Amino acid sequence: MLTKRIIPCLDIKNGRTVKGINFVGLRDAGDPVELAERYSKDGADELVFLDITATKERRKTLVEMVEKVARKINIPFTVGGGISSVEDVNVLLRAGADKVSINSSAVKNPKLINDLANKFGSQCVVLAVDAKLINNEWKVFLVGGRVETELNLFDWVKEGIERGVGEILFTSMNNDGTKNGFANNALKRLSEEVNVPIIASGGAGTIQHFIDTFKEGKSDAALAASVFHFKEIEIVDLKNKLKDQGIKVRL
Fold first, then answer.
1. What is the pLDDT of residues 136-170, one digit of tens each?
2. pTM above 0.90?
């Protein structure tokens, strides 16, 4: 059985790490380079860096910041925000990213997924999906959760995988920042219906929530932000508790 991964997420705005609730009400959470270095030393399995306003502001991800973070860590590093071309990915990989996360640009131009997977390999391409449960249907949202689409979460994920993505990062907008737990019913269905790793995002508040998403949600990895940024949960404590529950993790 593969080990379950713990992934801190750095949401970046104006060069700072920020965190909100349900995608709004952002507050400062610290310097991204310092946080990245801390997580690498504390035993995180991977790191995700999302320039959360790049698409809205129509600009590219902060390449200089990516370079600074990459120099400080020795764990796999996924970068997203404003990526819309093969050249964008070339630049980020040269700056030190290991994988890229695409979201709005993939919905607007699904062929981008094929192009990136063909050029860099599926293992390099993460499809980030922000979705909200509305009238019992999970609808996909774009531009940092600002724009609703007609896309269904499960249909879009399956299309993304057919086009070549190697991993799904699913954020429940209903759960995001609430610290009430992950959207395990949707995660379980995703895990059962597709054959690529599923990263749970949105809702982590306690160690039990991580246990639940691995056991009930069948998630392959769990991503969180504020509980790590503000040291409400220490990664080493989390991993020890997961191990005690029979969940395989890298210590």
1. 999 999 987 889 999 999 999 999 999 999 999 99
2. yes
Enter the DSSP assignment of 193.
H
The CATH number assigned to the domain holding 96 equals 3.20.20.70
Q: Which residues contact 38 (CB under 8 A, 6 or more apart)?
A: none
Average pLDDT, the chain: 91
Residue 130 appears among annotated catalytic residues? yes
CB atoms within 10 A of CB 132: 21
User: Could you tell me the maximum CA-CA distance found in the chain, to the nearest angstrom?
Assistant: 46
Q: Is residue 123 part of a domain?
A: yes
Catalytic site includes residue 11: yes
Structural domain count, the chain: 1
Q: Report pLDDT digits (tens) over 218-239.
A: 999 999 988 998 899 999 999 9
- Choose the catalytic residue: 45, 88, 130, 212: 130
Instruction: Quote the domain boundaries for residue 26.
Output: 5-244
In a domain, 249, yes or no: no
Tokens 């192009």 locate to 115
- For residues 223 and 171, what is the distance between their CA atoms, to the nearest angstrom? 9
- For 167, phi then psi, to 5°, come to -160, 150
